[in-house]
Amino acid sequence: MGLSTWFANFNVDTSLGIIQECAANVSVPLGSIPQTLNGQPYAMVLNEPLGPILSIAPWNAPVILCIRAIAGPVAAGCSVVLKTSEQSPLIHFELAKLFSDAGVPAGLVNSINHSSETAAKITETLVSSTYIKKITFTGSSQVGKIIASMAAKSLKPILLELGGKSAAIVTESANIDEAAEKILNSAFAHNGQICMSTERVYVVNEIYDKFMEAISNSFIKFTSTKISLPQRSTKQAAKIESLLSNALEGHEEAFCGKILRNDAYIEPLILRDVSEGKEIYDTETFGPVFYINKVSNINEAIQKVNKSRYGLSTAIWCSDILTALEISRNIDSGAIHINGNTVHDEPTLPHGGVKESGYGRFNSLWGLREFQYTKTITMSK
Question: Which of 21, 161, 284, 370 does the annotation list as catalytic?
Answer without folding.
Answer: 161
